[in-house]
Design goal:
Blueprint: E1 16-18, E2 33-37, H1 41-51, E3 56-60, E4 72-76, E5 82-86, E6 92-93, H2 97-103, E7 113-115, E8 121-123, E9 128-129, H3 140-148, H4 154-158, H5 162-165, H6 175-180, H7 185-192, H8 196-208, H9 219-231, E10 239-242, H10 246-260, E11 264-266, E12 271-276, E13 282-286, E14 289-293, E15 295-298, H11 302-310, H12 318-326, E16 333-340, E17 351-357, E18 360-365, H13 371-380, E19 383-389, H14 398-412, E20 421-429, E21 453-455, H15 468-486, E22 494-496, H16 504-510
Parallel strand pairs: 2-3, 2-15, 3-11, 8-17, 15-21
Antiparallel strand pairs: 1-22, 4-5, 6-10, 7-10, 8-9, 12-13, 13-14, 16-19, 16-20, 17-18, 18-19
Helix pairs in contact: 1-15, 2-15, 7-9, 11-12
Length: 516
């Protein structure tokens, strides 16, 4: 019997292979020239994928560092210690097959990732839900989670409107958007009669990880998230984190990989405009002049894409312009990191999701998983706490939000209440896409009307069931594959979680709804 292939390191035997198109393995000489605009996950993925097929790649990043929203930079604390600051904790789930494929380019064993043993969710009412010890296989993971939860009660679950909940049990792309994108996550959960406490804890925590409140998040994205992490994949509900800051763990080694592939990396370099050429290529207007390329990958954030399209009057693509103008950005979010002079209790989790604690959405005890923070705490006897507040009201007083988040963290972890703050750093940003109600049809596609102008990023529509960092990496590979196909070169395999609900009985139950 032939064993079904799996992504490296994967455990889900139903993971779906999206095989690459065939073609030559390497470009001839002279190779086509491609520009990748944006040095985040999507852009780095596209640059690697193109360069591995012999394409001459120039990567342009307007900021001083690679990594996009996972970039990091050095800062000096009040005690004289130089540390690396970033935009906060990110979870590398085991079902992020394509992101992990990118990262295996720098270490096939992914030795820079470490597993967190649990991912507790704490409610202000006193209940704590945990993911440790759950079976990996759906639907038993969700069933046991509900049965042992202090938030869920069997009497509450019995009141759920199973008929209205049917779309959750057979999620498919793009069908889930056709069925649910015009409904908000809050409206959908209310219609299902999902228990209010459980709704607030389980679903609001996840909704806000998309930088959105449930009232504005598309129910389709909520259902897709439920599929990816609960009912669609048997990779489990726990995740890995980087064990050193992002530049040291990921981006510096990946920059070395790009250099080995002869990619020319230009940081602190803005692309001002893109103009199509009669030969199908493009001229890029750069900070220091102009450059001609055979193809371009736009892998910027939303603001960057909107600005670049606005400044490129010769780009004759109505859909691209309309999508760039229509997609909204999520509300501001805060990442606060505090270096304090006494330790958090040893049993505190590395990452805790919270509900009902004012603006505070989660707390990380950074030394539990990051080596740099662990070395600082070993030397000083303190702790490094990171606090997140998502989807903050744009009119809110930012200093007040920072103070409230810190105060709420001290209620959660009272042993830190009287700690002296050695130093703090606060990062405020508003550059993530808002997956709002009815927004899916207005998001840009990977391909444009120009065969050699393609898009990548987590705001780009993707035919695979993906989210967040995995969507960025997947669209990066997809954008590269589109160009490689045009040049007669072999593409790169992609993987995804199953394309529909994996349980036959639940699929049959879901078939009774209007869900396509």
């Amino acid at each position: 019997m032939t064993r079904r292939p799996l992504p490296p390191g994967a455990r889900d035997t139903r993971a779906v292979l999206w095989p690459a198109h065939h073609g030559a393995t390497r470009a001839g000489s002279p190779p086509p020239r491609a520009a990748v605009v944006g040095g985040g996950i999507a852009g780095l993925t596209a640059a690697v994928a193109l360069a591995e097929r012999g394409i001459a790649v120039n990567l342009y990043e307007r900021g001083p560092h690679l990594g996009g929203r996972l970039a990091g930079w050095d800062t000096t604390l009040a005690d004289g210690t130089t540390v690396t600051m970033n935009r906060g904790f990110h979870a590398f789930f085991r079902q992020y097959y394509n992101l992990r494929a990118l990262l295996r380019r720098i270490d096939p064993a992914l030795g820079f990732l470490t597993a967190l043993p649990d991912y507790p969710l704490r409610s202000r009412t006193g209940g704590t839900d945990r993911f440790a010890g759950l079976p990996r296989t759906p639907p038993w993971n969700a069933v046991l989670f509900a049965l042992r939860s202090p938030t869920f009660r069997l009497t509450d679950l019995a009141r759920i409107d199973a008929r209205r909940a049917r779309p959750l049990f057979d999620v498919r792309v793009p069908g889930v958007y056709n069925a649910l994108d015009t409904t908000s996550a809050a409206e959908f959960l209310a219609a299902v009669n999902f228990p209010p406490k459980a709704r607030h804890l389980a679903f609001e925590v996840f909704s806000r990880s998309f930088f959105s409140a449930p009232e504005t998040l598309s129910a389709a994205e909520l259902a897709l998230m439920f599929h990816i992490y609960f009912l669609g994949s048997s990779e489990g509900l726990l995740f890995d984190v980087v064990n050193e800051p992002f530049p040291q763990a990921l981006w510096n080694p990946l920059a070395d990989r790009l250099a080995a592939l002869s990619v020319q990396v230009h940081t602190a370099t803005a692309v001002r405009a893109v103009a199509p050429r009669p030969d199908g290529g493009f001229d890029l207007d750069l900070d220091d002049g102009a450059e001609a390329f055979d193809a371009v990958v736009l892998a910027t954030d939303l603001a960057g894409l909107r600005t670049l399209v606005d400044q490129s009057p010769l780009l004759d693509d109505y859909e691209l312009r309309a999508c760039a103008a229509a997609v909204r950005q999520a509300p501001p979010f805060l990442v606060s990191r505090h270096w304090i002079d006494r330790p958090a209790r040893p049993d505190r989790a590395g990452f805790l999701g919270t509900s009902g604690y004012g603006p505070l959405d989660n707390v990380s005890v950074v030394e539990r998983w990051e080596g740099q923070a662990a070395r600082w705490t070993a030397r000083t006897g303190g702790s490094v706490l990171e606090l997140h507040a998502y989807a903050v009201d744009p009119s809110a007083d930012r200093t007040a939000v920072q103070d409230q988040a810190l105060a709420q963290s001290r209620l959660l972890y009272p042993e830190t209440a009287n700690a002296r703050v050695v130093d703090s750093r606060h990062e405020w940003h508003s550059d993530c896409p808002l997956f709002a109600v009815g927004s899916h049809a207005r998001r840009p596609r990977t391909r444009t009307r120009y065969p050699r102008l393609v898009l990548a990023g987590d705001a780009v529509r993707c035919p695979l069931p993906t989210a967040l960092m995995e969507r960025a990496a997947t669209t990066g590979f997809a954008a590269a594959n589109s160009l490689l196909h045009a040049w007669g070169l072999r593409g790169h395999d992609l993987w995804s979680v199953p394309l529909r609900g994996r349980n036959t009985l639940l699929r049959a139950f879901a078939a009774g709804s209007n869900h396509p």
